[in-house]
Amino acid sequence: MDKLSAINDFVVKFANVNGSGSASANGLFAKTIIRMGVPVSARNIFPSNIQGLPTWYEVRVTEAGHLGRRGGVDLAVALNPQTWDDDLQEIVPGGYLFYDSTKPMPPSKFREDINIIGVPLTAICNEAYKVPRERQLFKNIAYVGALSYLINIEPEVVEAVLKETFASKPKLIDANLQAFNLGRDWAREHLEPIGLQLRRADAVGDRIFVEGNDAAALGAVYGGATVCAWYPITPSTSLAEAFTAHCKKLRTSEDGKAKYAIVQGEDEIASIGIVVGAGWNGARSFTCTSGPGISLMNEFIGLSYFAEIPAVIFDVQRGGPSTGMPTRTQQSDLLLAAYASHGDTKHVMLLPADPGECFEMGAQAFDLADRLQTTVFVMLDLDIGMQEWLVEPFKWDEKRTLDRGKVMSAEDLEAGASFGRYTDLDGDGIPYRTYPGTHPEKGAFFTRGTSRNRMAGYSEKGVDYRDNMERLLLKFGTAAKLVPAPVVRKAKKKTKTGVIYYGSTAPAMDEALETLEARGQNIDAMRVRGFPFSDEVYDFIRAHEQVFVVEQNRDAQLRTLIMNEGEIDPKRLTKVLHFDGTPITARFLIEAIGQQLKPVKASAEMAK
Question: Which end of the chain is more exposed for a tag (fewer CB within 10 A), N or C?
Fold first, then answer.
């Protein structure tokens, strides 16, 4: 039988039972590989219950540094009988199955084209431990020990990571090392190393392993946020928790006083109401939620848009509609966020592709919200928000100042500045505002969610309403010049084929483009990073005969936005959709796009 061979380039997938304590062991596996200088791309695929259902942890070992999922499994650690058959089917021919061989399995439960590795984990731990819970927990560390011998993880690195992890609990260091060595020693005595091997490398550098929610929360702190109002919902809860932790370190005075306010509202409606109220009062404020929360927040989002009050919403998207798949990832809130609330509304969206951009855009969102006096959405998803990604250290310009937008001071008003709350003085659609209490007589901080004239006086005159609505549209056009510009990747050879994508699709898409180009299928690529779209997006479409739009939802929401906002012929945009709740893979994209590519036409123009 063929045995798959690879060095620093393979995929390991753990199949466990939720609540079994496997998460720590699987995380240890990934982190020790990083410590050996080899990058990993890790994905935790977990159920929406406390315990009992299947859970998976996929680790892509990739010295090339690919951040996306590849597709396929080279080594399956199958420890859940419920998912055994499905887990076996994912293993590529010549790959490896690692399982607990304490109880014999019939030959019919295996595949002839894969290599079987049995380790009696339960028997080993039953002999070493008397307490049932210890047997379960340390069995997880024991399989990491066995794997360490099979694929050449250095035990000294494991020991170092354990010492750091349990620095405050030294007894746990020794206990975990004992379990690790139980598995490693058994494997060394009974097995041979397999064809998938780790070798020390220097490919990690100074990169950090961090979740997108944590990065976005830190970006909010650096962006000047002082108010967070939220209601728990998967997968955004950890963003509010991270903001709390960062504020305790960075927004607490020397005498221990908190220079921030974090409020858990009674529901999502109350939370966004607090955010809008704080924004009206001049505080930089935000909430974090997911699709169901946005559905509930629509009325206050409309108030922010029409009354022109700054607010930031971090939307960590998940599978929908309704309760949907709370612990699965999708990019399915685009239309919901772009046009949230009734009437003619349009909202600014930022589209980060990894935790690094979550930090950058997490800070930038507050500048944009103040500058534009509106709600700004930062559109994460579960794959970015709740997974650890290997990214460059965050950078911050210490000279950077907060952009508070068009705010008139008491001095401006005393000097005779003309003030009308909804008057456009500069031709960009953005009026001036004042903070409450700025001046006892001059200036008006009163604002309206009803139709009004330029001085914020109530009016139902058609001319006043139309004037206001057209100005809001002009302001939206100004936003197109302020949101992050698209990132364009030109093919090595001239081509009339293009692809547009965004967000967490980026790592898999970038890898797929390399493979397609190596096959002679050249594609220009554009990653959009903000909405409203700039003219550059529409120019890109017009410059290509065939344009794929890749996204992780059923209804092609990005494609719909592009068609609607740019009045683009649907025939020009080809859908590439992935929406099963798992992160998109490079192999899926290579197949989906490669099969649809039009034949390249040889011509003098194309040859240039």
Answer: C
